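During data preparation, a discrete fold description was generated, as reproduced here:
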Amino acid sequence: MTATYEVSGIPVGTIGIIGPTRMEYARVIRLLSHLSHGLTELYTKLYSG
């Protein structure tokens, strides 16, 4: 499972989680979403000024 983070609407990276077939997919989706939003905010602040 993967999620992309971006700066000013431009994708700059992808994070992913590899796990067992029976992992808690709903939890992993929320985690990746949270991480990608956080990375987007962080990199946007760093590169925007």
User: Anything to note?
Assistant: The first strand starts at residue 2 and ends at 7. Residues 2-48 form one domain. The CA atoms of residues 7 and 44 lie 5 Å apart.
